[in-house]
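Hey team,

Sharing the Protein kinase domain-containing protein run so nobody has to redo it. Sequence (609 residues) first:
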Amino acid sequence: MSIDLYQMVYCELKERLIKKENYLSDHQKVLLERPNSLEASQLVEFCLLPDPDIQRYAMGLMLFHLSNAPVLNLEEALFYHDIMVKFIGELPEYKASIIAKYNSYLLNIIANSNTGEFLMKCTKKITELENLQCNVEVPKTFLKSKFTSFAFSQANKIQSDFSSEDIKSTAIAIQSGQKSGIDLEIVGNIIFSIGCDHVQKKYDINRYNQPNKKSGVCKDIDDPEYQKALKENDISIDVEEVKDLFGDLKRIPYKGFNNHEFLETLENIIQTEIPEKTDLKINLPPPVEIIPLETQTKPKVKKILPEETLKVSDFNKVNVIWKARPSYSRANEQFKIQVVIGELPNKELVAKKTYSLYDNYNIENVENEIKILTILSNRAASENSFLKFYGAERESVNETETNVTLYMEAHSSSLIDKITEYKKKGEMISKEITESIFAKLVLAFAEMQSIGIYHRDIKPHNILVTNDWNVKIIDFSVSDKLKHDDCYTTMTGVSLIQGTHGYMAPEVEEHYTKQEKSGFFRPGRADVFSLGLTIFQMISLKDTHALNFKCPEQYDRIKSLIKNLNAEEWVKILLTEMLNPDYHQRISFKKCLSKFPNSEDAAYKTIRN
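Structure output:
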């Protein structure tokens, strides 16, 4: 089977991708050039791309990587598991081979799951595989052993040091195991009896219903003498506490060890039946209706960008010495982009960005970029994050092709370059620098949104770093020029209107990975999430590709990662609010300004107000 699987990944799936090589970006070609050097975290972004050939080949590479990799982070491991489940669903004919290879990693996940929370997650993941008719007998047997060991360990712990929270969480975990077919009846009865013993001792339950000295039988609840005795006794049981505890304990098996009789006595005393707790049901808002592109109406516009004329500068392209090779190049059937860096006599760098547009391309996208660059350039200063724009020129090449060239300020390093540099050196970027960059970028994006500009492709690659650690925002080719509360995102896959996988907000990433051409989201809040990921990567020097994927445990994982950052508390608090997967609850750039220690400075107050 392993040979079968190897041929499938490295022959069949790879060959499909090789046929598309001319259409792949330089970044995507790394899958073909050095596939075995990529870590699982680096493969994630390719696994989420809409192209099925890229996606499946990347998933195959991830499978081989995981089968030989240790589990270092359980949240990440469970996220990779979801990708493998999708891989099996994509290629059901290879299901047996895939699961045979993947079982070793699944066993590693279970081995590292030492809490009830993670054991419950493991049961759900194995159930998902069983629903796909996968053979998971070995990991399921191991999970049963692990679950049983955990439950008995918890029983010993609670017996020696009773904790209501511990016993309730253990009951919930046991219930999860039982639902997955793991026999935990014995330990369930033990846990239940510990709860009974605790309540009996705390409230002296036996005094309320002692057996008849002659018959040895307790009175029936309907017995008038018993009812009278109950009324005469000063019953001081905390009914709500008891209902809360046994509501959870009723989740698990409890028919043995006289547990059933004790519970019946307890319910007689408090004169109410204790209901078993069920999982909480969250009332979600109704899904937003997605309107097809051809029937969409324009969103309500609150503010349109002001018409501005570019301020005159002393820039002259004749004085620039251009490099022979472009620093960036990209092409498809509608347009071609090429960026060349040049140097002025004073050693300042300039970028020449040339669009070669074919007759079926909408030139409004480029005109929009020029308009945004003009507005921000008029506000550019050495101390802020806006780039100097020197102007644009248009040239007709032939009847079907037009060139538009933009000239702007450039610098030799981007933020991703700095992150890579420090990562290689094994050093962290200083708190002073990261906090300064954080503040400058939030201030810049808040000001942009107050004007009516949404970037929509925020990432470390689109932030230049000057020699003195100032930052400049670049690449407005996918930006929105209209300001509105909500909008529809248009993602054609061949135009400039797209973000970057791994940095898109979850709500945008979800639409894109489903290959949906439209979807409802708030562009301002999406930009906040993307900047949050960028700042997190700058501080931690870690990849962020798995952090914008929608899954139930994602926010807990994000909070845990932020908690462990080497950063000031206010930075952690703000990042936590920026990286909320729910855009309804996510903080806005305007509110971010008030979270900075120097938020009373004039610059912050001007944008806030």
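The chain has four domains: 2-179, 185-270, 303-410, 412-609.

Ping me if you want the raw files.
A.
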